[in-house]
Amino acid sequence: MNKQKFGKWALRRLKWSTDDGKLEDKKCILLGVPHTSIWDFVISWLYASSIGITANIMIKKEFFFWPLGGLLKSLGAIPVDRTHGAVTARSVIERLKNSDTMYLAIAPEGTRKKTRRWKTGFHTIARECNVPIYLGYFDWKNKRVGKGVRFIPTNDSKEDLQKIMAHYAWMEMDGLHKDCFDAGDIKKSLNN
Predict the structure, then answer these.
(1) Which of 5, 10, 51, 127 to pair with 43, CA 20 to 30 A apart?
(2) Whole-prediction pTM
(3) What are the structural domain ranges in the chain?
(4) In the 8-state DSSP scheme, what is residue 118?
């Protein structure tokens, strides 16, 4: 069984449904919201496989020891040094610019814990590389996963982030750990 068939089969067995949409672009940022559990990686990997792509994710370099490092790289992981944020961003930007095809998956919350502040690095990378952002999701309440809508970033990262957060708040999803993601909290933070 190839990877794409396996991804579709596994999602069906786990009773997850997908938006079944193909990506229009050969390079993009794929957001993953809400990110509340390491299991989000499993669902998103199965989804990416089911649509025939490998989504690259950034993982701290400390996880790339033998034998885990080889497995992570085969799954699309990119080792990053989180102590030097600007250097990390620049290396990811260069990698995306120099790739013919790359789907960079990012959780904008930047943590699995509850947070109202989302990181904007994904926006910077998308703008620098002139690629769209897909507002991907994994909704544990309804067991739905998908690439979401296509969003073209502007030069106003603050306004764009507000629009993106409002989109996710409107979806009213649950993460695996419901106490770590609350659409109501996002709505409140948008009004501040």
Answers:
(1) 127
(2) 0.88
(3) 3-190
(4) P
